[in-house]
Amino acid sequence: MSDGGAFFSPAVARRLLTDSAVARLDRKVQAQNAFRALTTREQDVIQLIGRGMSNSDIAAELHLAEGTVKVHITSILRTTGARNRVQAALIAVHADKA
Q: Which residues, at least 6 apart from 13, have a Cβ–Cβ distance to it below 8 Å?
């Protein structure tokens, strides 16, 4: 193209959009399954992680000791397979729970 943009044939563009939609749906289903595997309290915690709250903020919001929040986060990471709280937050976001 003369303006420097990329050009995809309609078939390729359709395929890219379809693959993207399928990947988003797959992430959503996986996140929802991971969320459902958590206890009710862990679900509360991961929702607040997804909203960007710190451990101390979560503790205050849920009337828990900060150490208890850390225990819940450790369990959330183990249960969901998330490697860190950012991945846990993404689970909450993709599951539409944040």
A: none
Q: What tens-digit pLDDT sequence spans the chain (98 residues)?
A: 456 666 767 776 666 666 555 556 678 889 999 999 999 999 999 999 999 999 999 999 999 999 999 999 999 999 999 999 999 999 999 999 88
Using the CB atoms, write b or e for 73-89: b if 16+ within 10 Å: beebbebbebeebeebb
Please give the structure tokens belonging to residue 9.
Answer: 């044939």
CB 77 within 8 A of CB 84: yes
CA distance 85 to 17: 30
Helix axes 66-80, 55-62, angle to 10 degrees: 110
CA–CA separation, 34 and 29 (whole Å): 9
What tokens appear for 69 in the block?
A: 């929040």
